[in-house]
Design a protein that fits this description.
Length: 304
């Protein structure tokens, strides 16, 4: 099968993928990349190859990619500037002989009408990979269930209300763990080349329904306040959220922008997340976990 590269292996998705790959593969066949390789020392001690890689510094990438045949390219966090980072990674990987690139993308990334600005980075990266000469697999994730169970639920419980511009748009919330397991499945199986998979959980749920679930599980009433896109921007302004990706302070306290989040909500409202797929189960052999299950797993973090 050849050696497998995981980029961003010190991040949450990458670390989980590395752990799962170590359960399935010989450690000497695994190459884990990070800008901060010291964070991966435990993997090195288990026999995996740990290498420094900085996507902003292409000179570091040839040595980082050497010997790899399949690569999991985990999208970086820098909305607006990550396409260049991804291009550097893809070009270096292919130059070093990587034959198959698996990319963590976004649901409906290839649909021109999708208003979510984050989709532009993902589709541009998909096109770079498709043109690279390597086989490709795009994993187009729905919204993570963990984002609802933690980043959305905790302030909603604290405040008792949740401004929202998603309307009654439905989402097939998917656990990040299921997305990790699917990525590892694609990396360790054959037959997934030149294919895009939409990854969702088992059911379609709206944000108001998700917040009702939080109320039920927490005993804390939450009122969802339906606002328009301008109202959502005003809410984020009140929190000090930068409006545009170009305004984000590198390594600052808020790594996202309001136009990103507001157009994401618009995408949900307009139905671009309203789809279910059986890809998780087909690739992993396991039924994807539900949003309720993810909430129960993380309930200990709630301010009850």
């Amino acid at each position: 099968m050849g050696k497998i590269i995981v980029t961003g292996a010190s991040g949450s998705f990458g670390r989980a993928a590395a752990e799962m790959l170590l359960e399935r593969c010989a450690p000497q066949d695994l190459i884990f990349l990070s800008r901060t390789p010291a964070k991966l020392q435990a993997f090195a001690e288990r026999g995996a190859q740990v290498r420094a890689a900085d996507f902003d510094d292409p000179a570091t990438l040839a040595a980082a990619m050497e010997g790899g045949e399949r690569m999991l390219l985990i999208s970086t966090a820098r909305v607006g500037s990550r396409v260049g980072q991804h291009r550097n990674a893809v070009e270096a990987a292919v130059a070093q002989g990587v034959r198959h690139i698996v990319y963590t993308s976004l649901i409906a990334a290839d649909e021109p009408g999708n208003p979510a600005i984050v989709k532009h980075d993902h589709r541009a990266t998909e096109e770079i990979i498709e043109a690279s000469g390597a086989e490709w697999t795009h994993l187009r994730d729905s919204q993570y269930a963990e984002a609802i169970a933690l980043a959305m639920a905790i302030p909603a419980i604290q405040m008792g209300h949740k401004p929202d511009n998603c309307g009654d748009g439905k989402v097939g919330f998917v656990s990040r763990d299921d997305c990790v397991a699917t990525a590892v499945g694609v990396l360790t199986q054959d037959g997934h080349g030149n294919t895009a998979y939409t990854l969702t959980g088992p059911e379609l749920i709206s944000i108001p329904e998700a917040m009702a679930m939080v109320t039920e599980l927490s005993g804390k009433p939450i009122t969802v306040e339906q606002v328009d896109d301008e109202g959502m921007i005003a809410y984020f302004d009140s929190l000090g959220v930068p409006r545009h990706a170009s305004d984000i302070v590198p390594d600052g306290p808020i790594p996202w922008s309001s136009d990103d989040m507001v157009t994401f909500g618009q995408s949900i409202r307009e139905g671009y997340f309203n789809r279910l797929s059986d890809a998780v189960e087909r690739i992993t052999g396991n039924r994807p976990v539900s949003l309720r299950e993810v909430m129960i797993r993380h309930k200990a973090a709630w301010p009850l």
